[in-house]
């Protein structure tokens, strides 16, 4: 499908000027009305810093927090997708038991504050699971010898149990929303598709894999992309259990430097750039799938 050319009209120019004017007014009030002494020169050293002895550059605490946020979002998103697909398929199962089981999971998670879920899972369930799996001992053994690839994928090995608990917590929370996206996507496929495939002698598994899911996936993709971006933003909630992601590092930086506005504006910009890049990537994927359809 050919896209129309983007036109920039006078109304667009007026709206753009109004937005820029409003932004300038807010900045002026922030610099004058708040009686706050801005000191942006403090921030760069917490993003990147140079070792005077070796001359090498190293990531500061904000950049390390961003890397942890990326790891949390990636692994949580993948695990949440698996949980959500499984729960979503059970939501449309012909068996009542499976529909009720997945419905209970979705209803329980969606009707509970995320912060409560984080506390309950991390302090009561996650701790027991990590001990049962022996993750604490494994983390100490891994920490004795450096493993660059493992640390790049999962961060510092001594923090592995806490990171895994946070990943499972976020995945369980986001998985409930993905389950509803999967259910809605499958139910949006026309009934005739089910009937036609049934008439051809397909089993339910073959109907799902060859007929229903390929059509449903294209309809689900925008919502799934939005949910992944939501996962990036929701990962900030695990700062309350001392996972050293971007928001947690921002809290530490604000406490030590008292540069409240500079810190949070920088973190806002980092989150915005991260989610914007995800949005652009997903948009390209949508266009590619639309061209193949």
Q: Provide mean pLDDT, rounded.
A: 85
Query: How does the overall form come out from the CA principal axes?
Result: globular
Tell me about the largest β-sheet: 2 strands, antiparallel
Oligomer: single chain
Secondary structure layout plus pairing:
Blueprint: H1 10-32, E1 48-50, E2 57-59, H2 61-91, H3 96-110, H4 114-133, H5 135-144, H6 148-154, H7 160-188, H8 191-199, H9 204-234, H10 246-257, H11 260-292
Antiparallel strand pairs: 1-2
Helix pairs in contact: 2-3, 2-7, 2-10, 3-7, 4-7, 7-9, 8-9, 9-11, 10-11
Summary, kept brief:
The chain has 293 residues and is mostly helical. Helices cover 75% and strands 2% of the residues.
Structural description of this entry:
The protein is mainly alpha-helical and 293 residues long. It has 11 helices and 2 strands. Strands 1-2 form a two-stranded antiparallel sheet. β1 (48-50) and β2 form a beta hairpin. α2 runs antiparallel to α10 (246-257) and α9 (204-234) packs antiparallel against α11.
Please describe the structure with a list of short key phrases separated by commas or semicolons:
293 residues, mainly alpha, 2 strands, 75% helix, 2% strand, globular
């Amino acid at each position: 499908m050919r896209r129309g050319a983007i036109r920039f009209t006078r109304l667009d120019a007026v709206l753009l000027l109004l937005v820029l004017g409003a932004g300038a007014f807010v900045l002026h009030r922030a610099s004058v009305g708040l009686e706050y002494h801005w000191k942006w020169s403090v921030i760069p050293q917490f993003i990147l810093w140079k070792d005077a002895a070796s001359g090498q550059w190293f990531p500061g605490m904000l950049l390390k927090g961003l890397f942890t946020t990326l790891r949390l979002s990636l692994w949580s998103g993948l695990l949440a997708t698996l949980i959500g697909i499984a729960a979503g398929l059970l939501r449309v199962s012909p068996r009542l038991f499976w529909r009720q089981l997945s419905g209970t999971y979705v209803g329980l998670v969606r009707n509970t504050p995320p912060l409560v879920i984080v506390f309950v899972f991390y302090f009561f369930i996650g701790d027991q699971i990590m001990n049962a799996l022996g993750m604490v001992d494994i983390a100490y053994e891994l920490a004795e010898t450096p493993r660059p690839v493992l640390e790049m994928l999962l961060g510092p090995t001594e923090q592995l149990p806490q990171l895994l608990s946070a990943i499972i917590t976020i995945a369980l929370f986001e998985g409930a929303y993905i389950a509803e996206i999967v259910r809605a996507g499958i139910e949006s496929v026309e009934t005739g598709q089910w009937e036609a495939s049934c008439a051809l002698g397909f089993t339910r598994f073959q109907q799902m894999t060859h007929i229903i899911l390929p059509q449903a996936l294209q309809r689900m993709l925008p919502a799934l992309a939005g949910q992944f971006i939501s996962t990036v933003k929701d990962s900030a909630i695990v700062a309350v259990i001392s996972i050293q992601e971007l928001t947690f590092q921002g809290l530490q930086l604000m406490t030590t430097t008292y540069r409240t506005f500079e810190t949070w504006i920088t973190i806002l910009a980092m989150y915005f750039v991260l989610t914007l890049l995800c949005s652009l990537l997903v948009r390209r994927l949508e266009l590619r799938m639309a061209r193949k359809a």
